[in-house]
Amino acid sequence: MKLIDYGVREDEKKYIQEWSKDNDVEVKIVTDLLTPETVKMAQGYDGIIAYQQLPYDEKIFDTMNEYGIHVISLRNVGVDNVPFEALKRNEIRLTNVPSYSPEAIAEYSVTGLMMLLRNMKNMVRKVDQHDFRWVPDIGHELNQLTVGVAGTGRIGRAAIKIYQGFGAKVIAFDKFHNPEIEKEGLYVDSLDTLLKESDVVTLHIPSLGKGHTVINKDSISEMKDNAIVVNTARGDLINTKDLYDAVVTGKLYGAVMDVYENEVGIFNTDLTDTEFSDELLEKVIQSPRFILTPHIAFYTTKAVKNMATISLNSMVAELKNGTSENEINLDK
Ligand code: COI
């Protein structure tokens, strides 16, 4: 069996190399992203593993079919950049890594929130300038707040535990009820109720598709005054302009944004010597009421190792058994 792994970062290489040695399977490591051009390197291989934020071009899958490659395994969870129709047309199966570390993302939600509640961005900026005054950066305590967890999949459930550990009152919403959360009586009847009753709303749901936001002018008007939004999920869940306006006008306290609707091509890129043309993002970066990070909630050693190895294990299962526990249903 010969596999090829695309878009591999420096920090991922050692996990792939270790796996290759332990499993005695050849894995070619490629740093380029998977494109209609680079897919040509896959000729002669049995399966493709990849991770990238850019959309996967349909032509990639026509070429895979031509080369007799019928499985692609992603090293991440989100499949919103994969054209399912092109996969189906070419009889290509797809796997993802649905659970590489729910705790990594859940912990990051509270990390960002604590930074915001204790005005850490402003404090650190002040101290950097040798301004050691306290006022006006008085903090707020999480144990006094109601945290609304939107989405009770693995990440949402890990977040619930952590927020409860801090003594916050937790409420939750999901279309599908988890029996444990149900037993605890945390569910409210709708997302609207969650938004209305929460001091902090933390999003743990997938993208709803282009133009379908959860946080926008209308929903913000229903939220509590001074509420906080935490987004470690997908940027397109939020209308960033509406969120920014709500914070600037004082309706909301602030927000934690680890994802951004236009992040592709910006996040995980060094733009220090490039003129920055995203004015809205620049305003967010400058505001002390926004904690903005470049999609790093997942970025821990545990998660990166799991992403590298679970995707390879899924590929092996697909090639040996024709399926795997992480295969995505392309008809859903
Ligand atoms: C995903 O797994 O889909 C993520 O959002 C994390 C990604 C940046 C690797």
UniProtKB/TrEMBL annotation:
D-isomer specific 2-hydroxyacid dehydrogenase catalytic domain sequence ranges: 8-329
Ranges of residues in domain D-isomer specific 2-hydroxyacid dehydrogenase NAD-binding: 112-297
Keyword vocabulary terms for this entry: NAD, Oxidoreductase
The UniProt record lists the keyword NAD: yes
Signal sequence region: none
Origin: domain of life: Bacteria
Gene Ontology MF, one: NAD binding
Family membership noted in the UniProt record: Belongs to the D-isomer specific 2-hydroxyacid dehydrogenase family.
Protein name as annotated: D-lactate dehydrogenase, LdhA
Organism in which the protein naturally occurs: Companilactobacillus nantensis DSM 16982
